[in-house]
Design a protein that fits this description.
With 428 residues, the chain is of the alpha+beta class. The chain folds into 3 domains: 205 residues, FAD/NAD(P)-binding domain (3-Layer(bba) Sandwich), CATH 3.50.50.60; 103 residues, 2-Layer Sandwich (D-Amino Acid Oxidase, Chain A, domain 2); 60 residues. Helix content is 36%, strand content 27%. It has 17 helices and 19 strands. The strands form 3 sheets. Strands 3, 4, 5, 6, 11, 12, 13, 14 and 15 form a 9-stranded mixed beta sheet that branches. Strands 1, 2, 7, 8, 9, 10, 16 and 17 form an 8-stranded mixed beta sheet that branches. A two-stranded antiparallel ribbon has the order 18-19. The chain binds flavin-adenine dinucleotide. The site of flavin-adenine dinucleotide has 39 residues, from helix 1, strand 3, strand 11, strand 14 and strand 15.
């Protein structure tokens, strides 16, 4: 008889959610996490869309260590000397079903793993699952160091690299055009300073994304999220483009931090954390095989993440995939059948949910970003030039708006603008 009904590899949001949901239904569950604690190895920019966790743990934000509820959205186009920003402030996101929160993973993931423990899971950290155990080809557990641990089913929630998923043949080695590299700094600032600088009240947060010069014109961008007493600031840039560039990510980060729009927001802050991580961005095109006999793949390990430029989403998909993987395993236990005939129900659940529906809706987004470099170079420059012409008064005879703007439009090309605009609304 197996030691456990299920072994979960990785105590990120996908793994801990799956573990919690299975344990709550009485399954025996072991979670292995290679970090010293859940959350220790996990990186996110900072914003969790709460809807999927709200369905599992209603009212979770009252208890969980969330930082601030996002009520203010900013999107900027930056050049080396200018910055155009759209700023949207609203109380319409107050409903828990559509609220989003800034989070620090070290605290948030530890809380969620604690919930799984309370529900009865064994959570062991640090513990690295080195390989899958097989008996006559069938997955029967994992080997962690000297220990052979057996289970009816193994859930791989081991993140974007998922070496175990690759070894099991469920997914291919990561292709450079399907991943971005992200780096992030956490800068401590007093609460009242954050409130004043970002125009927020206590508990209110801001999400700010930047395109253009922060990624040095490459596919990617910058981000800034406000926490209670810190801000997270960072960059996400295509690995494929970084590999061709002579500019290093830490140098880009320094330039971004020192830029005119950012510097005053961070002045007086204390850098308390630096991290870097890969982000799966291939969307539906990098979707792996999601299940096999006695094996499931979830969260980033399954590439369930989207970068749409104005928002990055992976955590709500990780939570939802954890829940659906757990539901599938519960059904498998009821049937006494952990073969792929039952476990493939996981993919159907994902297909019927927002997870694969959203990835399908935005299936052209990765290609759009990859093949529209103007988004990251020419358009920020165009915005800067347009606003310069609009606001510059230098004693030269003024010209009508049309005359000011038309040459700019011709510079990029009307056809290019129309083509890119059409592609953007179809992809994003
Ligand atoms: C810079 C950056 C910005 C982002 N911004 C956002 C954002 O604002 N909003 C959003 O929703 N998403 C964002 N994302 C994406 C989001 O962070 C991920 O989609 C999410 O963390 C995926 O959760 P997960 O549980 O699947 O994987 P992870 O959080 O990566 O967890 C995997 C876990 O598995 C463990 N592990 C790996 N291998 C083993 C092993 N062999 N044995 C034991 N344990 C193992 C790891 O230590 C880790 O704890 C961002 C990502 C990055 C990098």
């Amino acid at each position: 008889m197996a030691d456990y009904d299920a072994i979960v590899v990785g105590a990120g949001l996908a793994g801990s959610t799956a573990a919690y949901c299975m344990a709550k239904e009485g399954l025996s569950v072991l979670v292995l996490e290679r970090g010293n604690a859940a959350g220790a190895k996990n990186v996110t920019g900072g914003r969790l869309y709460g809807h999927s966790l709200e369905k599992i743990l209603p009212g979770f934000a009252d208890e969980a260590p969330v930082e601030r509820k996002v009520v203010r959205e900013r999107v900027s186009m930056m050049t080396d000397d200018s910055c155009f920003t759209a700023d949207f402030h609203s109380s319409r996101f107050n409903d828990p079903a559509s609220a989003s929160y800034t989070v620090l993973r070290a605290e948030f993931d530890a809380w969620l793993a604690g919930k799984a423990e309370e529900a009865g899971c064994d959570v062991v950290c640090p513990a690295v699952a080195d390989e899958l155990l097989r008996d006559n080809g069938k997955v029967v557990g994992v080997r962690a160091g000297e220990d052979d641990l057996t289970a009816e089913v193994v859930l791989l929630a081991d993140g974007v690299n998922s070496l175990l998923g690759q070894k099991a043949g469920l997914k291919k080695e990561l292709a450079a055009n399907f991943v971005a590299v992200g780096c992030k700094e956490v800068v401590e600032l007093p609460k009242n300073v954050i409130n004043d600088r970002f125009g927020l009240n206590d508990g209110e947060g801001m999400a700010h994304l930047f395109a253009g010069s922060p990624s040095n014109g490459m596919m990617g961008g910058g981000f800034l999220y406000t926490n209670k007493e810190s801000v997270c600031v960072g960059l996400v840039v295509s690995v494929e483009e970084m590999a061709k560039s002579s500019v290093r990510l830490p140098d880009m980060m320094e330039k971004f931090r020192e830029s005119a729009p950012l510097k005053p927001l961070l002045t007086g802050g204390k850098l308390v954390e630096y991290s870097a991580h890969l982000v799966p961005e291939g969307g539906l095109h990098m979707l792996p095989v999601l299940s096999a006999d006695n094996l499931l793949l979830l969260g980033d390990a399954a590439g369930l993440c989207m970068n749409l430029g104005y928002t990055v989403r992976g955590m709500d998909l990780a939570v939802a995939s954890g829940q659906m993987a757990a539901q599938t395993v519960i059904e498998a236990k009821e049937k006494g059948d952990y073969s792929n005939a039952t476990l493939s129900g996981y993919k159907k659940k994902l297909e019927n949910s927002f997870v694969l529906k959203d990835l399908h809706t935005h299936r052209n987004a990765p290609e759009f970003m990859e093949h529209t470099p103007r988004m990251f170079k020419e358009y920020p420059e165009l915005a800067a030039e347009a606003f310069t012409r609009l606001f510059k008064v230098d004693g030269e005879p003024s010209r009508l708006m049309l005359k000011k703007m038309l040459p700019l439009v011709f510079k990029v090309g009307i056809l290019n603008l129309a083509k890119d605009g059409f592609k953007a609304v179809r992809a994003l």
